[in-house]
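This part of the workshop introduces the protein records we will be handling. A record pairs a protein's sequence with a compact description of its fold. Comparing a sequence with its tokens is the quickest way to learn the format. The record below serves as our worked example for the rest of this section:
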Amino acid sequence: MTVIRMKRNDTLPSLEATLKYSDGTAIDLTGATVKFYMAKPDGTVVINATATIVDATAGKVRYEWQAGDLSEEGRYNAEFEVTFPNGDVLTAPSQGYFIIEVQRDLA
């Protein structure tokens, strides 16, 4: 489980990840589209957005935080959903989630 810690209302740094199959090999994203989802622990989705493919053959993606994405402190579950050109869908990580911890800022 990867934990990413951010401060409330920040938009940098971008969230970057290498998407991998359960055996640890990178997912080839050539021709695919990738969505980023972030949800509260109760399952309420707070982000449903397109991620950018940075390096398709290496499985590297990026999500650029938008204003308001991190407005509420707390712990969130996140994942990327890959849709391949043939319509097949794969969610990464395959087990568990990326954990996003949004911490209170002082200002």
About this structure: The two ends are 30 Å apart (CA to CA). The first strand starts at residue 3 and ends at 7.
